[in-house]
Backbone:
């Protein structure tokens, strides 16, 4: 069992930055894939950024060049540095983990989810 707890969301003006954190507890290590997903009401959860068991990262189209995903060596802390935020980044952001090494953009591939942290970007 893996428990995930996100923090770091909030309200920020467009152009600003936020750093999301996710603390993982239970049977998880850096050998497993994790990711950040966003969701707005009425829409499917979408991948923002992922990191696989080898530390390779991948970004959704809207996140490239602005967001950075990282993880500590133990695999217990996952981060998302969000820069140059846009109003369209407003969403609930979720931390996710899966038991396997490979990372996917499909949220259905992830077994464990946090409760989410709200990010609101205003103009």
Residues:
């Amino acid at each position: 069992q893996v428990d995930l707890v996100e923090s770091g969301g909030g309200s920020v003006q467009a152009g600003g930055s936020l750093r999301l954190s996710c603390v993982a507890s239970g049977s998880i290590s850096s050998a497993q894939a994790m990711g950040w997903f966003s969701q707005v009401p009425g829409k499917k959860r979408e991948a923002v950024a992922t990191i696989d068991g080898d530390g390779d990262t991948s970004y959704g189209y809207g996140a490239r060049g602005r967001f950075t995903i990282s993880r500590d060596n133990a695999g217990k802390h996952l981060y998302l540095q969000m820069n140059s935020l846009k109003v369209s980044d407003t969403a609930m952001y979720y931390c996710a983990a899966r038991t396997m090494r490979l990372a996917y953009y499909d949220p259905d591939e992830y077994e464990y989810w946090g409760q989410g942290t709200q990010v609101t970007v205003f103009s």
In short: The mean pLDDT is 96. The chain has no helices and eleven strands. The first strand starts at residue 2 and ends at 7.
